[in-house]
Design a protein that fits this description.
Elements lengths: L4 H20 L4 H7 L2 E3 L13 H10 L3 E4 L3 E5 L3 E2 L4 E4 L5 E5 L4 E4 L9 E3 L11 E5 L9 E9 L4 E4 L13 E4 L2 E3 L10 E3 L11 E5 L11 E10 L4 E4 L12 E3 L5 E4 L7 E12 L17 E4 L1 E12 L6 E4 L2 E6 L2 E3 L6 E4 L3 E6 L2 E3 L14 E2 L5 E6 L2 E3 L6 E4 L14 E3 L2 E3 L6 E3 L9 E3 L2 E3 L9 E6 L5 E2 L2 E3 L2 E3 L7 E6 L1 E3 L5 E3 L1 E2 L2 E3 L2 E3 L4 E4 L6 E3 L14 E4 L6 E4 L14 E4 L4 E4 L6 E4 H4 L4 E4 L10 E6 L2 E6 L9 E2 L4 E2 L9 E12 L3 E4 L3 E8 L54 E4 L15 E6 L4 E4 L6 E4 L6 E4 L5 E6 L4 E7 L7 E4 L19
Helix pairs in contact: 1-2
Length: about 850
């Protein structure tokens, strides 16, 4: 039941107190912003510590309610992960600040090849011991997965080791290798909730070092069956290790335990208890620049691995040579990754997944990532993994990756669950990747994913069967995708298809036929593909306006250079991006259910309260960047409505830390409204204002009394102004800043001609705001007859941009589109003749619709 006005005000007061309480405690983003707490990490640095002393600086900042830990230039070798905390940002000085992986595994060559071997001859037996866990590498080719084995005996005379079982793949002399040094096994089962484990060899670890325990799939955090933890202490007498944190999963005896870790790790408890307001900025993370990386692999040890987090800002980061993914965000929301490079990592470059929401990847580069084919990891520039919504890619580059430029969009599970929906990929380059430029593998019957304004060229370098854009129903239907305004080209001969739809049968339990259909493929330039430029199989897919010849320079996006901490790469940008902070879009919620109604809110959208079933709506403003914003101010029809100084920035406030949005009170009234939001650098709407964002919303309220629409004669008296609710009418002489000239005015003045209803009119906006396109619909409300001998022209000057063309035909409906100029020309177009007549019949005004536009578009 919706609370009363008094209850809402009480709840708002309680919410304000909660926010104030947070600002005084350890969960304080407000405190961090207001007081700009900065911790210089230099006095804490200790090269003998597994964390190089950096963790103590992070803990100090967290204990003070949050802040920025600043690292100087230098190389800081890690043997464990840095455990990032709520409210803390870790910041370097740029590429000169390097967090480097510690010791690698050791390897020796196999000196005698063969198949099904259990006794292995090696080049040097000195380092091996009975009971040691080793991995047998067929070669360094990432298509082959090494297996783990236990050494049962040694023969120093023959330089052989005998394993607990035969190796089930062939070994080649002086190619195959045995690796060791980072692994042992559990000698007793480990129990969830305990922090003590028994291992065969404690010498693998030192106190403070990172540790990974691999359990059974479907257990532990995220059901991933893997535990990342830290060694607290070691008891050599009974071969036990005490961990920093209790185990989140139970693991059977004989399971492998590895010295492995992320560089930066942040782990919340669950969706309702997330870490938040964290950041990593201006530094490099570096693994081993060799093809010999540790045998253990899990996405869970990505260089930056955040799980159950929100309001994260990762900016100007380079991750290179890591033995897993570069940057991984799992079960995270309302976050930003920008100006960052992931290259040459044995995994994916970027990896959002596990029902992540509302993440912006802006100006990132995924270059030459290796993947781990033997583990099923293709090595995509960015990999969409499992249930992403509104995870958007903008102005980015994905080049020369072992997988796709952007991989597995739609994806999810083979039973058509956990689909990726409502994501946008735009203004980016996908080039020279082994697989597709953009690979779609499902998404469901209503994926609503958009791929637009990208340059996609010369992919499928592995000479397989991938297209520039592959629309496949691999793990679910691939339906309702929009592929628009892309340049998809083949200049080297590798990319055989431009855009290709294909159906695939997938058997989760029984065979299921998933269909690719209902897609929109329009206005793309697709050329020079040897197999086919465009393959459409969906009977309901719309493919129009596509050009199949080489484009000229006019339609090629102008490249703009981005400079993360590694080498720069040109990125296409059709339009400039606002500098500083800004609101990229507005999101509308049903305040009764806290469910998303529109993300983003389409400009010119019509909201019918009767259809919606409630008048209780809320509007939320995400920001770019995700953190570091002082406040957001909302305007309704040019009047300040509310200023929010804490996340999430909602137009009517919220409670439960953003889990319960309060409704606008009073609700938006029947008619047309302009909603605007802008960021400020300080709380309370103080400081520097960022670029504003605004939309026009049409409210239909059946309980309200509609304002009568005035009738008109054949020439206008008023022109549209910058007030969104103005309904201009027409008489013989314009009176509102307009001059009118009419030649041979029509002799027969209609008594009730078409009226002009302004439904979308932008307010005055500052320079460098999103382009607003407003629409005026002119509809005849009653039958009217007009007779004219000559066309009458009226020219009016207005403060807002508009061009209005009204045509009286047999069914008189005229549409007028406002763009940003300074004159309004009204041309009631009546065909000149001796006695022409035009009859307008009764029609119902139809609300206009408008496509989503890029938030950085300016005039």
């Amino acid at each position: 039941m919706q609370p009363s006005f008094v209850q809402q005000r009480f709840r708002s007061g309680v919410s304000a107190l909660i926010i104030l309480a947070f600002s005084l405690g350890s969960f304080s983003w407000l405190l961090q912003s207001a007081f700009a707490n900065t911790i210089d990490a230099t006095p804490y640095l200790n090269p003998l510590a597994p964390d190089f002393g950096i963790q103590a600086a992070i803990d100090t900042a967290a204990a003070q309610g949050g802040g920025t830990v600043r690292l100087p230039a230098g190389t800081f070798t890690l043997e464990t992960y840095l455990d990032l905390k709520t409210g803390v940002t870790l910041q370097g000085v740029g590429p000169e600040t390097i967090l480097k992986a510690g010791r690698n595994e050791q390897r020796v060559f196999v000196t005698q090849g063969g198949s099904n071997l259990s006794t292995i001859k090696v080049a040097n037996i000195a380092a091996f011991r009975v009971g040691m866990i080793v991995y047998l590498w067929r070669s360094t080719d990432l298509r082959f997965l090494p297996g783990s084995y236990e050494i049962m005996s040694l023969d120093t005379t023959n330089q052989t080791i005998t394993l607990d079982r035969a190796v089930n793949y062939p070994l080649t002399a002086n190619v195959s290798q045995v690796s060791y040094g980072l692994y042992t096994k559990l000698t007793a089962a480990a129990t969830q909730g305990s922090n003590v484990i028994s291992v065969a060899d404690t010498s693998v670890f030192k106190p403070g070092e990172g540790i990974i325990i691999k359990g059974t799939e479907g257990t532990g955090i995220g059901n991933w069956g893997v535990e990342q933890n830290m060694v607290d202490s070691i008891n050599i007498s009974n071969n036990t290790i005490t961990l920093k944190k209790p185990l989140t999963l139970s693991v059977p005896s004989n399971s492998v335990v590895s010295h492995a870790y992320s560089a930066i790790f942040a782990l919340g408890t669950n969706f309702n208890n997330r870490l938040q307001n964290m950041g990593v900025r201006d530094l490099t993370i570096e693994g081993w620049n060799t093809n010999q990386k540790p045998a253990f692999y899990e996405f869970y040890i990505g260089a930056i691995n955040f799980v159950y987090c929100r309001f994260v800002n990762i900016d100007n980061i380079t991750v290179r040579y890591w033995h897993s993914d570069g940057i991984s965000l799992q079960s995270c929301d309302q976050s930003t990754v920008s100006n960052s490079l992931a290259t040459a990592n044995r995994g994916h470059g970027f990896h959002p997944g596990t029902t992540s929401r509302d993440i912006e990847f802006v100006k990132i580069q995924g270059i030459s990532n290796l993947g781990y084919a033997a583990r099923g990891t293709a090595g995509d520039g960015l990999y969409y993994c499992w249930g992403n919504q509104r995870v958007n890619i903008r102005q980015s580059v994905f080049r020369n990756n072992a997988g796709s430029g952007v991989g597995d969009l739609g994806g999810g599970d083979t039973d058509n669950s956990a689909r990726d929906t409502d994501n946008i990929i735009e203004d980016s380059i996908m080039e020279g990747n082994v697989r597709a430029g953009v690979e779609v593998n499902g998404g469901g019957n209503a994926a609503n994913n958009i791929i637009r304004r990208n340059i996609i060229r010369d992919n499928n370098t592995g000479n397989q069967d991938y297209a520039g854009i592959n629309l496949l129903s691999k793990r679910g239907p691939a339906q309702r995708y929009i592929v628009q305004d892309n340049i998809i080209e083949n200049t080297t001969g590798t990319q055989k298809f431009g855009v290709r739809e294909a159906n695939l049968a997938v058997p989760p339990t029984t065979p299921v036929n998933y269909l690719t259909d209902f897609n929109t493929i329009i206005n793309n330039t697709i050329y020079n593909h040897p197999s086919n430029n465009l393959v459409v199989i969906g009977p309901n897919t719309v493919a129009t306006g596509n050009v199949f010849t080489q484009p000229g320079a006019v339609i090629t996006p102008t490249p703009t250079n981005i400079q993360p901490t590694a080498s720069e790469t040109s990125v296409p940008t059709n339009t400039p991006t606002p500098t500083g902070s800004y609101v990229p879009r507005l999101i509308m919620y049903n305040a009764d259910t806290d469910q998303v109604l529109y993300d983003p809110i389409p400009n010119g959208v019509t909201i019918n309260y009767a259809t919606l079933g409630t008048r209780n709506i809320s509007i939320v403003a995400p920001t770019f960047p995700a953190t570091g914003i002082g406040s957001v101010r909302f305007w309704v029809d040019s009047a300040i409505y509310r200023t929010e100084s804490g996340r999430p920035y909602s137009i009517a406030g919220d409670q439960s830390n953003g889990l319960d949005f309060l409704p606008m009170n009073p609700a938006l009234s029947h008619g047309t409204h302009v909603i605007k939001a802008a960021t400020f650098t300080s709380s309370g709407g103080m400081g520097t204002q960022g670029t504003a964002y605004q939309v026009v919303i049409n409210i239909v309220d059946s309980n309200a009394t509609a304002t009568p629409i005035p009738t008109s004669t054949n020439t206008p008296t008023n022109v549209p102004t910058n007030t969104p609710t103005t309904i201009p009418t027409s008489t013989n002489t314009p009176t509102n800043t307009a001059t009118a000239t009419a030649t041979d005015v029509p002799t027969n003045t209609p008594t009730n001609t078409a009226t002009v209803i302004v439904t979308d009119v932008p307010t005055n906006t500052p320079t460098n705001t999103p382009t607003e396109i407003a629409t005026i619909t002119a509809t005849a409300t009653e039958t009217a007859t007009a007779t004219a001998t000559v066309t009458a022209t009226v020219t009016a000057t207005a403060t807002e941009t508009a061009t209005i063309t009204a045509t009286a035909t047999e069914t008189a409906t005229a549409t007028v589109t406002i763009t940003q100029t300074t004159t309004v020309t009204v041309e009631p177009s009546v065909t000149p003749s001796n006695t022409p007549t035009a009859t307008a019949t009764n029609t119902t005004p139809t609300p206009t619709t408008h496509r989503v536009f890029a938030p950085w578009v300016t005039n």
